[in-house]
Amino acid sequence: MTGPVTVIGAGLAGCEAAWQLARRGVFVRLCEMKPEKKTPAHVSDDFGELVCSNSLRSDELTNAVGLLKAELRELNSLILSCADACAVPAGGALAVDRTAYARMVTERIRSHPAITVVPGEVTELPEGEVVIATGPLTSDGFAKVIAGLCPDSDLHFYDAAAPIVTRESIDFTRAWFASRYGKGSADYINCPLDEAEYRRFRQELAAAEEAPVHGFDDKSVFEGCMPVEVLARRGEDTLRFGPMKPVGLPDPRTGQDPYAVVQLRKDNAEGSLYNIVGFQTHLKFPEQRRVFSLIPALRNAEYVRYGKMHRNTYLNSPGLLDRYYRLKSRPRLSFAGQMTGVEGYVESCASGMLAGIELARRVLGLPPADFPAETAVGALAQYVSSGAVSGNFQPMNINFGIIAPLDKRVRGKREKNLAISRRALDWIGSWKQQEEKL
Prior knowledge:
The protein has 438 residues and is of the alpha+beta class. It is 31% helix and 18% strand. The protein has helices spanning 12-22, 64-74, 78-85, 98-111, 140-149, 195-207, 228-234, 285-292, 345-363, 376-386, 413-437; strands spanning 2-8, 26-32, 55-58, 87-88, 93-96, 115-119, 130-132, 156-161, 164-166, 176-178, 188-193, 260-266, 273-276, 303-305, 308-313, 326-327, 330-335. Strands 6-2-1-7-17-16 form a six-stranded mixed beta sheet. Helix 9 crosses helix 10 (376-386).
């Protein structure tokens, strides 16, 4: 054993980094300010908390995030193993029971003999090797420390969480279970609207009163988490081409696709709670109840959580970080998670994994972990470090557009994506075998 290395933050990225370090023989001090202090988005005392959604998105190799999850599983990810163990049905996606998942992550971290959890807020940089994984809601005190290291760290955008309702309050005379195109099991509750219902709903949503969020600007919101009311204001049919897309969901009462559909996804294993898919919002709570009640199936919905906005902060990473998520000006400091400009739960986990693997190899005197752009893990790190013009850097989900193209032509998008995924997993498998020999 060697170390200790300090990891600051026990979110997805921090827990993954700590786990990868520990399983390679490096002692870890994992610093976490919960439960003494929480951010506005967190409610649980557990580690690895999922705050906006319980979905880790597609699990198929024809989708880039499906490939990223496959790579993480192959590399013995703590977060993915806990997510798989706590999965709830969600068609072709991986969704989890939030409470059970966070509890399992916490138990496995606390029980690892090489990880010591240090409670309390960090306000100064520790000595030695450090992984900073404090997340997009970094405390004001430590944010000042980071700002001193990275003058460009004052970039920010705003993220939004979707409401959660009880299943028993949903009107199933106006809803049915199905997955789009009949794919997988019938895991979503579908709430249809006819044209008149949709037009009234969109009009009221676009005009609804928003909760004040300091410094809020629609232009600074990450597109993948755009509040539903902002989408409503963009045009008559924007919602019907976005979160209310009706295609592939025929109403069993008519046999035809409805004019618009709101989907609900299971939020816990018991199926007693459902979140409204794609309905992130920062409307005032009474306005959420008033406007969303215009959806016939949700006319009398009981809300266990309303949607809300929270601040996300991220680095202007190109030029600041290298391909291992290390700060170029101070290589003893690494960053991981959404603060680096990766967007999404799985992407945050991937950044923590790579930062942890690389740091472990460095302190153990081993060669660097050079994941290439042919892999999803490597492509994401290279995008963050150099794949965008610094002045225009924006948070990025994993996508096939940033993964190195094939050296041969493959017909059909699905077949091409599968070929890219197989190539990536072949490389990951070979690298894993080589590491095991070290």
